[in-house]
Prior knowledge:
InterPro entries: 6-blade_b-propeller_TolB-like, NHL_repeat. Keywords: Glycoprotein, Repeat, Signal. With 161 residues, this protein is mostly beta strands. The chain has a single domain (29-151), classed as Neuraminidase. The protein contains no helices and 11 strands. Strand 2 and strand 3 form a beta hairpin. 30% of the residues are buried.
Amino acid sequence: MSLNDKTSKIVNVTGTYTDGSGQNQFSGPWGIFVDNNFTLYVADNRNNRIQNFQPGENNGKTITGNGTPKNLQLNYPTGVVLDADNNLFIADNNNSRIIRVIRDDYQCIVGCDSNSSSTSDKLNNAYALSFDSHGNLFVADEYNHRIQKFTLATNSCGNPN
Length: 161
C-alpha cells in the first residue's frame, strides 16, 4: 500500500487548523498513539496535557495533565504510548521524566527528581518512547543524544506520585 494524494482519501481526524485548548484543538500535537480499539492518544505539547479521542469522535477528553490525576503537572509532553496492560506512559519532556498513569493515579518511572543528567537513571528532555514485544521501554533522551532501554519490573516502580 502506498500513499498517493490522487487516489488515497486523507481525513482530518481532529483539530481545527488553529492553535487552542478546546476539546478539538491543540497547541503543538507531538506524540500520538492508536490502541487496538482505535482510540487515539495525543501528547498536546503546549497545552501540557494528554488527550484521548474515541473512534469517530472529533472532541477529545483530557485524561492527563493540568492536575489530572492527583495534581499531575506535565511540562511539554512529547510522547505517549500504552503498554500491553493498557497503562499510559508519557514522555514529559521539560520535566525530563517518564510517567506511568494507572487508573486514577500516576507513578514516575525514570527521572523522578526533576534534575536532568546523563547518568543512566536520568534523562535530559525525554522525547519519545516505545515498547518492544518483550515489554522493554525505549526512550529517546533528546539532549543526552541517546536511546535508553528500561526493563520494568512489576514491583520496582515505587509508590504513586
